[in-house]
Design brief:
- Chain A contains one helix and 28 strands.
- Chain A is mostly beta strands.
- In chain A, the strands form seven sheets. A four-stranded antiparallel sheet of chain A has the order 3-2-1-28, with no helix packed on it. A four-stranded antiparallel sheet of chain A has the order 4-5-6-7, with no helix packed on it. Chain A has a four-stranded antiparallel sheet with strand order 8-9-10-11, with no helix packed on it.
- Chain A is globular and about 45 Å long.
- By secondary structure, chain B is of the alpha/beta class.
- Chain B has a five-stranded parallel sheet, with helices on both faces.
- Classes of the chains: A mainly beta, B alpha/beta.
């Protein structure tokens, strides 16, 4: 009888409402670690191809996409069974990507080839290859999906790509080695981190879909060499009030006022912190710490680190299932 | 007028960038002086035909890709000549409009060419590491992209001191370059509180080099050469001539680590370096050239990237404007070494970390933790402003 009840209930639970899971790509371990975001237990670790870096999840929560950089393709996994599904073509050395809010297509940065590749995740075909600057890395898409941003690490630009025409419509020179780009929720601001420049450029988009730098956020921590304050991952809360910036070898995440661009605090996390992801309710922010092989969990409201969880070798990126 | 129309057209299409979007055509050159030399001890150190040129070619591609968004074009001419033809080659390059010339040459030739160029060209030194070129023999029109020997020896000294290996056994060669390198190690030891407790000269006896006869003799001779020394923590080899140092590890009388010209070597870059995004840089170089990167390639790449970055940021390629910009506080550049590189405005030396390399991996990177400096930790490497005799950059 009990089995029958379970069987009846299960179909109701199926669908998008999975238990919360964080997927962490382990660049050196060639695996993905799965973490339960309620219990913070590691559920499993599975093989994810060679040099997994960029990682994201489809809006319906079913598919996990992983840039398998050294396999030159995107590996796809079922987020429930962890079974590998047919791969997607990506162009050479995919590093980071961003998914269209509808779930298709995928915009992929090809680090070795100065290209952004647009891949249809349904037909598994390349729709377009867009030439960009040297060493493309950071990828972001505007909330209205009209513009895709790519940052090129050696050219030091944020390229604004029209998603209709696949043409670059605008470029903004930023500081050395731009790693990551992130829009705020209403698309009025774009944040671009520059790892070697040590800054986050704030680009104002309140009047237009393209814009210029209006502010540069800089960082300062007593006792930490300025050279070690290397901004990489950036995440903005839905209400835009807080911006979190991972500071790489400084082992800290900066908390920034989203209105004034002022740094409010620095949270000590694991070593060489790179990428981050919120849980869907934004209660927690998870950071990947590449040198200590763990992730840190930040309580977003309290702005405190509450725990760290050991994962695989050299964690790079993290994605959390949607609600 | 045609240029102007072109620039306007570009401005109206995709090339919309804040700041300096104006057509600029940048023509640079790499001038390499080829000297008659003996074969290296290791085949891994064979000199490829496109040494330095390959790095310059990659930088030119990088610059051109970036320039494509700004209306800047980049071209680089590569010339390899014997030393006696260098001045004529320089004149030809200048006459053809090359204002930015990377030179891979020995110190005296570099000085001769720099003086001949005067203010007609900005010279990027990508080969001569002699400390004196950054000191009493500095020139206002020379930027030293390659690190000085003082920077390299300081990088080794910092590591030894960090390891608490203060007592050194210095073995140097007998050629002038070896003696100059030994001087830099003596200076580095004093600077960081190490002590040279034993010092020996390994004489380069020319055609009948003891090391020529292969491992059998070496295995017998080197232990004898290195016996009866004061107690020491480490052997420091100063062998700029590549005569004996690679044989030292494993053939010493007293088993100690070797650093300097063998064992743990200070380098500007090496082909196994992967940190700070270097993997993708190595791959781009290998795809372009079909071989591994050498230090001279990195130095030449960096020289032309310094130029490219100046053009990108200022929209100018004029010698004086580029020089002013790269010597200013505004200039910084990412160079796959974890921190921005900048240029000392008092002697033209590019500040950069030095990789400590064992032949396979990056073992460490100097400056070491704890070696602080009031301007930048990078200034703990090499001669510092207060002790520099360079006056060419004043005023």
């Amino acid at each position: 009888m009990k089995t029958l009840t379970t069987a009846l209930i299960l179909p109701l639970l199926a669908g998008p409402a999975f238990a919360g899971k964080a997927f962490v790509s382990n660049e050196r371990g060639n695996t993905v670690t799965v973490i339960d975001t309620d219990s913070w237990e590691v559920l499993t670790e599975f093989d994810a191809g060679n040099r997994p870096r960029g990682i994201t999840i489809s809006p319906d929560g079913r598919h996990l996409y992983v840039c398998a950089s050294d396999d030159n393709l995107i590996r796809v996994f079922d987020t429930e069974t962890y079974e590998e599904l047919p791969s997607l073509p990506s162009g050479p050395d995919p590093e980071l990507f961003v998914l269209h809010p509808s779930g298709n297509p995928l915009y992929i940065a090809n680090e070795d080839d100065n290209l952004v590749t647009v891949t249809d995740v349904e037909t598994r075909t390349v729709l377009e290859e867009i030439p960009v600057g040297v060493e493309p890395e950071g990828m972001a898409i505007s909330p209205d999906a009209g513009i895709v941003i790519n940052t090129s690490e050696t050219t030091n630009m944020a390229h604004f790509i029209d998603t209709e025409t696949f043409e670059i419509v605008h470029n903004v020179l930023v500081d050395q080695r731009p790693r990551y780009a992130e829009y705020n929720h209403d698309g009025t601001k774009l944040y671009v981190s520059a790892e070697i420049g040590g800054t986050v450029s704030v680009i104002d988009l309140s009047d237009d879909r393209t814009g210029e730098i209006v502010d540069k956020i800089t960082f300062e921590v007593a006792g930490v060499l300025p050279e070690w304050l290397q901004p990489v991952g950036v995440k903005v809360t839905n209400d835009g009030s807080r911006v979190f910036v991972a500071l790489g070898p400084a082992n800290r995440v900066a908390v920034i006022d989203g209105e004034t661009d002022e740094v409010l605090d620095y949270l000590l996390v694991g070593q060489r912190v790179w990428q981050m992801a919120f849980t869907p309710d934004e209660r927690y922010l998870i950071t990947t710490n590449g040198n200590s092989n763990d992730v840190s969990v930040i309580d977003v409201e309290a702005e405190e680190v509450i725990r760290s969880i050991q994962v695989g070798q050299q964690p790079w990126g993290v994605a959390v299932t949607p609600d | 007028m045609k240029r102007l129309a072109h620039a306007l057209a570009l401005g109206l299409t995709m090339l919309h960038v804040a700041g300096a979007a104006w057509a600029v055509d940048v023509t640079a050159a790499v001038l390499r002086l080829d000297y008659p030399t003996l074969a290296p001890i290791s085949r891994y150190d064979l000199v490829p035909d496109d040494l330095a040129f390959a790095g310059a070619a990659l930088a030119t591609e990088d610059n051109a890709t970036t320039g494509g968004f700004l209306g800047h074009t980049f071209e680089t001419t590569a010339r390899a000549v014997p030393p006696e033809e260098a001045e004529a080659a320089l004149e030809e390059l200048i006459a053809a409009g090359h204002g930015h010339i990377a030179i891979h040459a020995r110190a005296d030739d570099l000085l001769r060419l720099a003086d001949a160029a005067g203010d007609r060209a900005l010279i990027y030194n990508v080969g001569a590491r002699d400390t004196r070129l950054r000191d009493a023999d500095c020139r206002a029109n020379v930027l030293h992209i390659t690190p000085s020997r003082a920077m390299l020896t300081d990088a080794v000294a910092q590591f030894a001191v960090w390891k608490r290996w203060p007592d050194w056994f210095l073995i140097h060669g007998s050629n002038p370059d070896d003696l100059a390198l030994a001087d830099d190690y003596r200076r580095a030891a004093t600077k960081f509180g190490a002590e040279i407790v034993e010092e020996r000269e390994f004489e380069d006896t020319g055609g009948s080099r003891r090391t020529d006869t292969g491992h059998v003799l070496v295995q017998r001779q080197l232990p004898v050469f290195t016996q009866d020394t004061e107690d020491h923590d480490v052997v420091v080899a100063a062998d700029a001539s590549d005569v004996f140092a690679p044989y030292l590890p494993f053939h010493l009388w007293t088993p100690r680590p070797t650093m300097g010209s063998a064992g743990l070597r200070p380098v500007s870059f090496h082909a196994a370096h992967e940190a700070w995004g270097a993997t993708q840089f190595q791959r781009r170089f290998e795809a372009l050239t079909g071989r591994y990167m050498q230090e001279a390639d990195y130095d030449a790449w960096l020289a032309l990237r310094v130029l490219g970055e100046a053009v990108t940021r200022t929209g100018a390629a004029d010698v004086a404007e580029v020089r002013d910009y790269v010597l200013s506080d505004a200039f910084e550049l990412a160079a796959f070494k974890g921190v921005p590189v900048t240029i000392r405005d008092w002697n033209g030396q590019l500040r950069q970390p030095i990789l400590l390399y064992d032949g396979r991996i990056t073992v460490s990177v100097s400056p070491q933790e704890g070696f602080l400096h009031q301007v930048s930790p990078l200034d703990s490497l090499g001669i510092d402003r207060p002790e520099s005799a360079c006056t060419a950059f004043e005023g």
